[in-house]
Amino acid sequence: MAKNSRRQMMNAAALALAGAAPVAAQGQGSGSWKKQIVGGVVRSGHLLFLSGIGGWYPERKPKPGDVREQTADALTIMKESLKKAGSSMENVLKVQVALVDPEKNWEPMNEVYNTFFLKDRPARSYFGSTGFRRAGQLLQIDCIAYVD
Known about the structure:
The chain has helices at residues 6-18, 67-84, 102-116, and strands spanning 35-38, 41-44, 47-54, 92-100, 123-129, 139-146. The chain is α+β, with helices and mostly antiparallel strands and 148 residues long. It has a 6-stranded mixed β-sheet, with helices on both faces.
């Protein structure tokens, strides 16, 4: 089976998010789109959904650190999770970032973010947040990626 283009994967992601049933295409039956949990990642067809990756977990580090450190930690968790699910950071289609105090934290978060996505960066959106359940956490990241 030929590799799907990034555009085809984005279209499939948009359909999935809109709740539309995918058309059986490229030799895939409708059964291949069922939801599966793969190492903590939700998979549907060729799409992977990772949500709620926090910038700080006390069981991993005793102190929260700054937004640069939390961005690196969250994106490292994302990278490891994608690898376990058979994908990679190069296959990330969309990222959403929830960020505490974006006026202060946007630039340092973005500097670290750009070291994880060197070329063909995914679509990205962000929104400001007043905080998270865990005091000291400065961001939370979600992503949609594809896997062959």
